[in-house]
Write a structure and sequence with these properties.
The chain is mostly helical. The protein has two domains: about 70 residues, Winged helix-like DNA-binding domain superfamily/Winged helix DNA-binding domain (Arc Repressor Mutant, subunit A), CATH 1.10.10; about 150 residues, Four Helix Bundle (Hemerythrin (Met), subunit A). It is about 65% helix and about 5% strand. Strand 1 and strand 2 form a beta hairpin.
């Protein structure tokens, strides 16, 4: 599973010293850590939609080659986080309401399947992992820190995906994860966000956790539908505020 890492091991330049990198001088680790760094910046909103990605700045900041940066940009383009425009270069991809609608629709379907498989395959070990993760998620939702909430939500669902026991399903969900994180960040940081949204989310996820403990697949999948629909409605509402466009998706 691909996971965000905020502790990427990069050492920035010191005064009067040449810029170096802590990461092993090996092509794959260099590329992987540079990818995590830039993806994290995009998902957290440090790079706004439409913002240019300047190769030279990344090369200087990370201490890697232009080749590595361009490979990372190609990977992020595949993940639909970046678009490369002729004579302009790479920019952060601007998200549309129709994409958000489609992503949440697919996400609900895949998450319901993952939860069903997790319940069927659960063991004392996997339930213990889920319990520990849920307690951390509860704490993060009560504290209200966007970064912490996203991190703990991801951990909670990663356990479900991992122990669902289906690698193909896990891979499909992972493909949507990068884009979903951007929506979550928007929903948690937007100045016009619904202040009661996180309370509803905590209630939904608490009910989901209890349904999993009870091995109630019907109840668990219903809760997934409720939570994803609520998240979808909130994101579409915020996009409408930002764009002023109503293309029939906003209800």
């Amino acid at each position: 599973m691909t996971r965000l890492k905020s502790n990427w091991m990069i050492i920035l330049s010191r005064k009067n010293e040449k810029k170096t990198s802590f990461i092993a001088r090996d092509a794959a680790p260099l590329r992987a850590q540079a990818h995590l760094y830039l993806r994290d910046k995009i998902i957290r909103g440090d790079y706004k939609p439409g913002a240019r990605i300047k190769e030279r700045e990344l090369i200087e900041t990370l201490g890697v080659s232009r080749t590595v940066i361009r490979e990372v940009i190609r990977q992020l383009e595949t993940e639909k986080l970046i678009t490369v425009e002729p004579q302009v270069g790479p920019r952060v991809r601007i998200m549309s309401a129709s994409e958000a609608y489609e992503i949440y629709l697919i996400r609900a379907t895949l998450e319901k399947l993952a939860v069903s498989l997790f319940i069927e395959n659960q063991s004392e070990k996997t339930l213990k992992k889920l319990k520990d993760s849920f307690r951390q998620l509860e704490t993060s939702l009560k504290k209200g820190s966007p970064d912490l909430i996203i991190k703990q939500k991801n951990k909670f669902f990663e356990i479900i995906y991992l122990y669902a026991g289906n690698q193909v399903l896990s891979g499909l969900i992972d493909t949507l994860t990068c884009q979903s994180w951007r929506w979550r960040t928007l929903g948690l940081t937007h100045p016009n966000r619904d202040p009661k949204r996180q309370q509803r989310s905590l209630k939904n996820l608490s009910n989901l956790y209890q349904a999993i403990l009870q091995k109630d697949i019907s109840k668990a999948t219903l809760i997934i539908d409720i939570e994803v629909k609520d998240a979808q409605d909130e994101i579409l509402r915020l996009i409408k505020i930002d764009t002023g466009v109503d293309n029939g998706l906003f209800r």
